[in-house]
Amino acid sequence: YSEVVSFAKKITQYGAAQDPKKYGFALPLAVSDVWEYYADMPLSQAGIYHFNYDTLKYEFYKQKPILEMYIQLDKDGSIFPGALQLDNDPARAQFSEGNIGMMMAASWDVGVFNDQFPAKIDWGVARFPTPDGKLSGKSVLDAAYDSLYVNGMSSPEVQKAAVRFLEFITSVEEQVKYYEGGYGIATMSDIVAASKNPSQKKGIKEFTDLSNDDIYPRWPPEVELEGDDRYTVYNAILAGRLDLDEGLKDLDKRLNDALKQAAEQGKFKLEDYRIAGWTPTKPNPNAYKK
């Protein structure tokens, strides 16, 4: 993280004399799920995760190191202005224009920088930074978590059409086109095997190396939380309206209290999510069944 801070500061100092000005880092805090990509996923590589499947407790206090990095970036003036109002597309557009030096990204951003907002600068891909520069954990491979619900549609014909569309879009043939076009990675070996011309688009090659990636277990169901949610808390910390340690401690307490209360009310069985001895250094997707 110290290197990120150092290089972001150098880029910003250089960019101060440019027109338009250049900044070292982008932090699009207007995005509702920004902290999943700017805290959760980067920290997983460092062996730091926000939920403990052994103790069944949220542990957002462990995310302090990356928040300290962002606080320092902000103090140095290295973050692109207006972070609290900055959405992801404007941030990506500014990166493509060459006005932002570094930003967190996912595999689908390769298509953005090649096609949606074609980059006017040379750019490259590196793994997320870690506090000490070492890979102590596994990157989160976000795959197959979403579901398609068709039972609420108006007629059986519409339901069948929705299922046919799902079968079409997830077919090997269509997924090969998606993979070869450089719009995302392939997590199934048969898709890779059927690809005769893997994409040569800039940036995709680095994302196709899944040797340090793994599928993590699902979080317990969302609970009704009293007070501000995690995204609001983190934004308040970055804006200097909330103390870092106090904010994280209070967030964990409220989340774990709400989790316990929901389980006691019979909304779900918390024990269904327990994985004895679980550690983010070895997420092991075969260790959980529910």
Helix content: 40-55%
Described by strand count, sense and barrel closure, the largest sheet is: 2 strands, parallel
How many beta-strand runs?
6
Which residues sit in consecutive blocks of at least 5 with pLDDT less than 50?
Answer: none
Describe this structure in words.
The protein is mainly alpha-helical. Helices cover 41% and strands 5% of the residues. The protein is built from eleven helices and six strands. The chain has helices at 2-15, 34-44, 64-75, 88-97, 109-116, 156-169, 172-180, 189-194, 204-207, 230-238, 244-264, and strands at 23-25, 51-52, 57-58, 100-102, 139-140, 213-214. Strand 2 and strand 3 (57-58) form a beta hairpin. Helix 1 packs parallel to helix 3 and helix 10 (230-238) runs antiparallel to helix 11. The chain is globular. The mean pLDDT is 89.
Chart the SSEs and their pairings:
Layout: H1 2-15, E1 23-25, H2 34-44, E2 51-52, E3 57-58, H3 64-75, H4 88-97, E4 100-102, H5 109-116, E5 139-140, H6 156-169, H7 172-180, H8 189-194, H9 204-207, E6 213-214, H10 230-238, H11 244-264
Parallel strand pairs: 1-4, 5-6
Antiparallel strand pairs: 2-3
Helix pairs in contact: 1-3, 10-11
